[in-house]
Amino acid sequence: MNWVKSQLVIALTFFVAVWPTLCDAAPESRRWPKWEVADAASTASIDHSVWDRFLHKYAHLGTDGIVRVAYGQVGAAEKAEIDADLVRLAALPISHFNRTEQLAYWINLYNELTVKFVLDHYPIPSIKDTGALLKMFSSTPWSRKLTKVEGEDLTLDDIEHRILRPGWSDPRIHYTLNCASMGCPNLQPVAYTAANVGAMLDSAARQYVNSPRGAHVEGGKLTVSSIYVWYKKDFGGTDAAVIAHLKLYAGAALQQALNGVDKISRDYYDWSLNEYPAH
Fold first, then answer.
1. Which of 12, 136, 197, 259 is the one with CA 20 to 30 A from 112?
2. CA dihedral 9, 14, 20, 22 (to 10 degrees)
């Protein structure tokens, strides 16, 4: 019996030690042909007004350039409205829309599902801390089936890594998805739509790249968000390619700082909840 207990302790200790690494490991981008179907001739549009109103009311841009969400201020009626909106979105025959409508749809769906997940578990210090010790033996927030679209149960990982990343092959996608964390690209204070998604992709990229949590140079050494390490392949596959990508969106100060930098020295990510007001 003592031997069994000791083995359990060893196993649990190992699991605790590797759990953060397992959580942060980036899934591969894998095609799911079902979600590549679209109707290029479609002129139908998708209503994102419920999500847009929520963002206008509860997503606040701080003086530090970080958008925080007032999760604690959301009332029961508004939570129910988000729930109903997600049911409506899930019921749409998304393959019947054109690709631009689909892009805005999947980005908004991901972000709205993430906010709902936080609201359902609030208060929490981090989206990764929703079940104390038991969370180690269950799925992560990103691997849980949170919605069903066109008969398919979907996780946040499915939306990001099997629909958006392989479907659009655009590194700017990473700037649109918010994981309810301080280190993540901003949750934009307006909903994505087919009309604004192109401009917002560029705007979100510039916001993040030029913020300290995106990239900064100190003493000639480049520190970047872990996003650029986890998904290095999406940004070109090498340190040099990541730096070239940063330069595409860098303002004058960062551009100058990046001159002469040829490698990433450090990466960092803050998983604390993007909660307003800041604590």
1. 136
2. -120
How far is C-alpha 40 from the geometric centre of its chain's CA atoms? 27
Q: How far apart are CA 121 and CA 129, in angstroms?
A: 9
Q: pTM here?
A: 0.90
What tokens were used for 13? Answer: 């200790």
pLDDT in tens, 72-89: 999 999 999 999 999 999
**Count of structural domains, the chain:** 1
Q: How many other CB atoms sit within 10 Å of the CB of residue 165?
A: 23
* Helical spans, DSSP H, in 59-196: 76-90, 99-121, 156-157, 165-168
Q: DSSP states of 105-117 as a string?
A: HHHHHHHHHHHHH
Average pLDDT estimate for 211-234: 97
Predicted pLDDT of residue 138: 54
179 with 269: CB under 8 angstroms? no
Residue with tokens 């700082």: 257
Output the six-digit token pair for 111: 């972000």
CA pseudo-torsion sign 80, 189, 103, 271 = negative
**Using an 8 Å Cβ cutoff, are 102 and 38 in contact?**
yes
